[in-house]
């Protein structure tokens, strides 16, 4: 699905269906509390109504599902900088939500605690027009844990699986992590489109979707679906070097994929096959 198709789907199709649900007046208030992660992905206005200040878009539905409506307990987590590039930024405005709540309290997380120092330093090098705000939000005050350097490998497409096996085997044999602590990320939406299409295993470890992961298997997932996840170890495949990426969306995907790792990160760059 292209960025234009995603923008149409989430901006018009999904929003239209959500508005229809609200207008049906058949919503049953059956919940006591609301927890929303990645709240910046939930529109706070309807298409074409950005200037109107009397509604809160999708949130109108969420509140109608609560027995106490906007007086119910809520925990809402968001980062405006992480709203997808294909989603219109002006359709999320946190103040539209806050002004409707009875006793809102805001807390800003000022410092980054997820990463080892080498990974944080690497992420801060991934600066482009698309990722500037994300990079600038990577701040730390206390000493972060040390860890292995980020691994960057340049590999021809036919050798990606072999390099992946080498990295996985080294990490596991060295006791750095367990198989189920490794997340393999690709920009492609399905395994059939990745360089692992013809592989069911890497070494002795089966490749599975994250929903089927077991202690002795390796999870493969697309970068987009990994949003909101993190893992002790991440190996990103099928990507070009960051400075070679042509579009803001590719730059954002690269950053988001790399930022899923807490302590171990390897990126296997796809290079042109030698003639």
Distance between the termini: 32 Å
Shape annotation = elongated
CATH hierarchy, class of the largest domain: Alpha Beta
SSE pattern, N- to C-terminal: HEHEHHHEHEEEEEHE
CATH architecture of the largest domain: 3-Layer(aba) Sandwich
Could you say which structural class the secondary elements and strand pairing correspond to?
alpha/beta
Rounded to the nearest angstrom, the radius of gyration is 21 Å
The profile of the biggest β sheet is: 7 strands, mixed
Mean pLDDT rating? 91
Helix content bin: 25-40%
H/I helix tally: 7
Tell me the CATH topology of the largest domain. Rossmann fold
Q: Please tell me the total number of domains.
A: 2
Fold and architecture overview:
This protein has 275 residues and is of the alpha/beta class. The chain folds into two domains: 3-98, no CATH class; 117-270, 3-Layer(aba) Sandwich (Rossmann fold), CATH 3.40.50. 25% of the residues lie in helices and 17% in strands. The protein has seven helices and nine strands. It has helices spanning 3-24, 59-64, 94-98, 117-123, 132-136, 160-173, 248-258; strands spanning 34-36, 74-76, 151-155, 182-186, 201-202, 205-208, 218-222, 231-239, 261-270. The protein has a seven-stranded mixed sheet with strand order 3-9-8-4-7-6-5. A two-stranded parallel ribbon has the order 1-2. α2 links the parallel β1 (34-36) and β2. The protein starts with a helix and ends in a 5-residue tail after the last strand.
């Amino acid at each position: 699905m292209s960025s234009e198709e995603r923008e149409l789907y989430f901006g018009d199709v999904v929003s239209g269906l959500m508005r229809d649900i609200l207008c049906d007046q058949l919503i049953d208030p059956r919940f006591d509390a609301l927890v929303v992660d990645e709240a910046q992905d939930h529109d706070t206005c309807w298409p074409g109504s950005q200037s109107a200040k009397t509604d809160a878009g999708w949130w109108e539905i969420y509140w109608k599902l609560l027995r106490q409506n906007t007086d119910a307990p809520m925990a809402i987590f968001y980062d405006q900088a992480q709203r997808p590039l294909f989603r219109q930024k002006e359709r999320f405005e946190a103040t539209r939500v806050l002004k409707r709540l009875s006793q809102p309290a805001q807390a800003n997380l000022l410092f980054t605690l997820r990463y080892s120092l080498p990974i944080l330093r690497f992420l801060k090098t991934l600066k482009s027009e698309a990722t500037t705000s994300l990079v600038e939000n990577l701040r730390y005050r206390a000493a972060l844990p040390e860890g292995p350097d980020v691994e960057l490998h340049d590999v021809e497409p036919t050798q990606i699986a072999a390099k992946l096996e080498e990295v996985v085997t080294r990490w596991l044999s060295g006791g750095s992590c367990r198989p189920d602590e490794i997340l393999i990320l690709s920009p492609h939406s399905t395994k059939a489109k990745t360089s692992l299409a013809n592989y069911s295993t890497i070494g002795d470890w089966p490749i599975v979707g994250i929903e089927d992961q077991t202690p002795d298997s390796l999870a493969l997932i697309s970068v987009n679906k990994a949003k909101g996840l993190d893992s002790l170890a991440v190996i990103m495949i099928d990507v070009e070097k960051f400075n070679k990426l042509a579009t803001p969306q590719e730059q954002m995907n690269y950053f988001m994929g790399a930022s899923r790792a807490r302590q171990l990160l390897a990126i296997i760059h796809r290079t042109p096959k030698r003639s």
